[in-house]
Design a protein that fits this description.
Strand content: 5-15%
Number of strands: 13
Strand order of the largest sheet: 2-1-3-12-6
Distance between the termini: 77 Å
Number of domains: 2
Length: 397
């Protein structure tokens, strides 16, 4: 009888132990710079703040992120939560990867606090498939000493940029570095050049748009920019700049912390991307999406916590990005007092969104492929962008 009693007690205790176990979730992210460290810190804070949900972080390189996510949908082996580039949100919602959270969002106090652009990127066919996480843009970084030694002012036009990049290219240092791989990073970095001519990303074989690719190709031809840009991520470009191998670069605010760590003595500034007809940049940012594989309520507990104004403010302040919630910006004045962040905030006035379009990845692929062909000289700019336009037209029909 004693043994039976003991078994019953252990069974009861076992059931209790199981019921008290946390729901375990996995989060995937491709972000570089300070984001991995900050994400792990905040996830740790969330896990310690309650006893029902435990989130584990996994970094996936950007170059393989979308492939891995797409394959995981087909294999039904998805993470529970993903941090997704905002123009891709609609595409994966259409693919059936993300859970519809419209009902959960409907009763959430935070739903009306977000800026319209980021909020729109989380929706597809009138339903909610994520929550905005951060916003960013691109601007021009420059080495102050390099420009001063060369007797140069910060360039504001393409003509000034071309002349400055040529003069700053000496020895093993190029005047300018950009990121131009055949993926969304390449598209992201190419869009400001297209927009600056007055062209549109859905009409890229116009004389104006062709001028953008011709200009970038000319920087490689006169050895002001390395042909290796076709292989560089934005993180790679930051390393080139920090190592003194590029006097200027186009990059985002998420790399500020990496520059300060890699080259603490580097005196650098940030300015608007030089213009052709008009100043321009591109709106970047990420969303938090819950996948179809997740325990929806458990995942929502984390997403809702992370998307609060306090946590959004903390994450963005530590990573150099901008909150997607207007009330999160008001929590502190770091974005206006810090001269580097203030420059990116000024650039936000010119930052245009990508999409949203459920087939944005196809549009993006056409753009990044044409960029690579043009930069390498595989095709002349007009021919490269004619090919891109043919592909874009098929998507938009």
């Amino acid at each position: 009888m004693k043994n039976l009693f003991l078994v019953l007690v252990l069974c009861i205790l076992g059931v209790s132990a199981v019921s008290a176990e946390k729901t375990k979730l996995t989060l995937w992210s491709y972000q570089e710079g300070d984001s991995p460290k900050v994400l792990q810190q905040l996830i740790g804070e969330f896990n310690a703040s309650q006893d029902k949900v435990e989130v584990a972080y996994e970094y996936i390189p950007f170059a393989s992120f979308k492939t891995k996510l797409t394959v995981s949908v087909m294999a039904k082996d998805m993470a529970d939560i993903v941090i997704i580039d905002n123009p891709d949100n609609a595409a994966y919602a259409a693919l059936g990867a993300f859970a519809d959270v419209s009902d959960l969002v409907a009763g959430w106090e935070g739903k009306d606090k977000f800026f319209p652009g980021p909020w729109k990127s989380t929706q597809y066919n009138g339903k909610q498939y994520g929550i905005p996480m951060d916003s960013n843009d691109l601007a021009l970084y420059y080495d102050k000493k390099a420009l001063k030694d060369a007797g140069l002012m910060v360039p504001t036009t393409w003509d000034e940029l071309k002349a400055a990049a040529k003069k700053l290219s000496t020895g093993n240092r190029f005047g300018l570095a950009i990121s131009a791989p055949k993926n969304e990073e390449g598209t992201f970095q190419y869009i400001p050049w297209i927009l600056s001519t007055g062209a549109d990303v859905t009409k890229v074989n116009t004389p104006e748009a062709v001028k953008s690719l011709t200009f970038l190709r000319s920087l490689i031809l006169d050895k002001s920019m390395s042909p290796e840009v076709i292989n560089w991520t934005q993180g790679d470009v930051q390393k080139q700049f920090s190592a003194g191998k590029a006097a200027m670069m186009v990059n985002g605010p998420w790399n500020i912390g990496s520059i300060k760590r890699d080259s603490p003595d580097l005196d650098f500034g940030v300015a608007l991307i030089p213009r052709d007809k008009q100043y321009s940049s591109v709106l970047g940012g990420e969303n938090l999406a819950i996948t179809k594989a997740a325990n929806r309520n458990a995942a929502w507990a984390f997403v809702k916590w992370f998307a609060s104004k306090e946590i959004e403010n903390k994450y963005n302040a530590l990573t150099g990005t901008f909150p997607s919630r207007g009330d999160a910006i008001a929590v502190n004045d770091v974005w206006t007092k810090d001269p580097i962040l203030a420059a990116f905030l000024d650039e936000m006035k010119y930052a245009m969104p990508r999409g949203p379009h459920p087939r944005w990845p196809e549009i993006s692929n056409a753009l990044s492929e044409s960029l690579q062909k043009g930069l390498l000289g595989v095709a002349k700019p007009q021919a490269a962008l004619d090919d891109a336009q043919t592909k874009i037209d098929k998507v938009l029909k």
